[in-house]
């Protein structure tokens, strides 16, 4: 099992690279659509995007095993909120990968009794639930970081060496500015949380668009997918930047 998970982890890195290429093609197509004389380039980009998408399906075949193991690990998390969010999120990810595998079986012609639209909708919904729960977990972690920033400020103000002029929030700013300042300061001190939040926010644009909850154009989806893929690649190249559970 461990050897297989290590293999799928390597496949995840390749999948992220392919995904970045796929969404870069999507973004370039959007940028070129309004320009004359770019029809040939758009056709080539569509072809490359389709080929990369097909290649990604092969890399994702074993991810259901990794998702199952992630679910087992999330049950062991000590903090109740992350444990609940991560467990439910990973269960949805398991279902998503099962649906994705069924769609792959359909695409290669191994079966004809699969309703592609139905399974695609099911996969998109579970992917959306997975990202939504992941963002709830991110929000919880951000709130913890904000609380820590406020506690650090209070300690600094009480300290004899502390500067009385230091403040996370200026008294002259309004509540919204104060909250945003605290929010971004909290993310800045925790790069893994920042990366995970950005990745999930960008990723959720895709199911939001596909489910019709929030329609976006091709450029927004492509840019979001590209940013998310780069963030994912960073966490694979630098594992210390992956958000840890506690």
From TrEMBL:
GO cellular component, one term: peroxisomal membrane
One Pfam family from the record: PEX11
Superkingdom, natural source: Eukaryota
Main location: membrane
Membrane-spanning parts: 218-238
Biological processes per GO annotation: brown fat cell differentiation; peroxisome fission; regulation of peroxisome size; signal transduction
Keyword terms, alphabetized: Membrane, Peroxisome, Peroxisome biogenesis, Transmembrane, Transmembrane helix
GO molecular function annotation: protein homodimerization activity
Protein location: Peroxisome membrane
Protein name, per record: Peroxisomal membrane protein 11A isoform X1
Organism of provenance: Mesocricetus auratus (Golden hamster)
């Amino acid at each position: 099992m461990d050897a297989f998970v290590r293999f799928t982890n390597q496949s995840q890195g390749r999948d992220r690279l392919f995904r970045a290429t796929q969404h870069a093609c999507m973004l370039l197509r959007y940028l070129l659509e309004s320009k004359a004389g770019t029809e040939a380039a758009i056709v080539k980009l569509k072809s490359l995007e389709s080929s990369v998408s097909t290649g990604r399906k092969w890399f994702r075949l074993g991810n259901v095993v990794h998702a199952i193991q992630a679910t087992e690990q999330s049950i062991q998390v000590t903090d109740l909120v992350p444990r609940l969010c991560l467990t439910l999120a990973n269960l949805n990810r398991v279902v998503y990968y099962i649906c994705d595998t069924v769609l792959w079986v359909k695409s290669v012609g191994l079966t004809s009794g699969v309703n592609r639209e139905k399974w695609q909708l099911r996969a998109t919904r579970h992917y959306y639930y997975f990202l939504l729960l992941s963002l709830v977990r991110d929000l919880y972690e951000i709130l913890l970081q904000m609380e820590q920033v406020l506690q650090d400020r209070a300690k600094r103000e009480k300290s004899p060496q502390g500067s009385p002029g230091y403040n996370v929030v200026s008294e002259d700013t309004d509540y919204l500015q104060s909250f945003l300042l605290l929010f971004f300061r909290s993310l800045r001190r925790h790069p893994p949380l920042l990366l995970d939040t950005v990745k999930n926010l960008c990723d959720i644009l895709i199911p939001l668009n596909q489910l019709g909850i929030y329609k976006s154009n091709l450029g927004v989806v492509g840019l979001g997918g590209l940013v998310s893929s780069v963030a994912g690649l960073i966490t694979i190249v630098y594992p210390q930047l992956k958000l840890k559970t506690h």
